[in-house]
Amino acid sequence: MKTNIEALIESLPDSIVQHIQHLERIRQDFVANVSHELRTPLTVMHGYLELLLSQLEINHPWHKIFLQMQQQTARMENLVENLLLLSRLETEVQTKIAPQPVAIAKLLSIIIKEAEQLSGEARHVISLEADNNLTLHGTEQELHSLFSNIIFNAVKYTPARGNIQVQWCYENNKAYFVVKDTGIGIAAKHLPRITERFYRVDKARSRASGGTGLGLAIAKHVLIRHNGKLSVDSQVSKGTTFTCIFPKKRIFIAK
């Protein structure tokens, strides 16, 4: 999915494009360096807050304050980890070593259990239909980030007891990862920008759910590294369908 900004950049003269690329590298280096510097103090703060909470009774007047501080440091840690992951995906040159075969059906079953825990009292109905013989050549950690970000988004933006269908299948020499939900949906004007860093369709709801605005940006870059494409179909108040399409050269079907 090409954004308006990407299309504009492609139409510019080479000298301007090179300058933009230089500025982009500076931005990436800055984000990576700041994120690394933030990681250690946040980890220390989070650890001390856990220790303090363990020493206090739940009805102690400071318990609620320390608990909120711990929750916010955990949120910041999550943001830093996502920034570091995105920075690595953007800048790391892929090696020529052949990717490892990843059992996607098994990976998805693990992510579904994580999604059910995330759902909690909302009790979403999450179903999985996956071809056990359909394997994808790639990096398992990156693919876990791709699939989990899309599935967890479906959980966060689908009302309680809503339906989320996850599918992994093969058709016409391509592999398809599909997540269909009955959530709040996305207006058409937002679709071209949803994979941009920090772009939020509903800022208040995203922050309330602990979102960082980086999940779909991470998903986009993982797809690029695995020669995949993203398709999004959505209607407000009716739900959204995310489809990741992988080419034949990435697929292995066990017999």
How many β-strands, per DSSP? Answer: 8
Helix content: 40-55%
* Mean pLDDT, all residues: 86
CATH homology-level superfamily of the largest domain = Histidine kinase-like ATPase, C-terminal domain
What structural class do helix, strand and pairing data support?
alpha+beta
Using the coordinates shown, work out and report the CATH topology of the largest domain: Heat Shock Protein 90
Structure description:
The protein is α+β, with helices and mostly antiparallel strands and 255 residues long. It folds into 2 domains: 4-91, Helix Hairpins; 100-253, Heat Shock Protein 90 (2-Layer Sandwich). 50% of the residues lie in helices and 20% in strands. The chain has 7 helices and 8 strands; from the N terminus they run αααβαββαββααβββ. A 5-stranded mixed sheet has the order 2-4-5-7-6, with helices on one face. A 3-stranded antiparallel sheet has the order 1-3-8. Strand 4 and strand 5 (174-181) form a beta hairpin. Helix 3 runs parallel beside helix 7, helix 4 runs parallel beside helix 5 (140-156) and helix 5 (140-156) packs antiparallel against helix 7 (215-225). The two termini are 34 Å apart.
Question: What's the helix and strand layout?
Answer:
Elements: H1 4-10, H2 14-55, H3 63-91, E1 100-103, H4 104-119, E2 125-130, E3 134-138, H5 140-156, E4 163-171, E5 174-181, H6 203-208, H7 215-225, E6 229-235, E7 239-246, E8 251-253
Helix pairs in contact: 2-3, 3-7, 4-5, 5-7
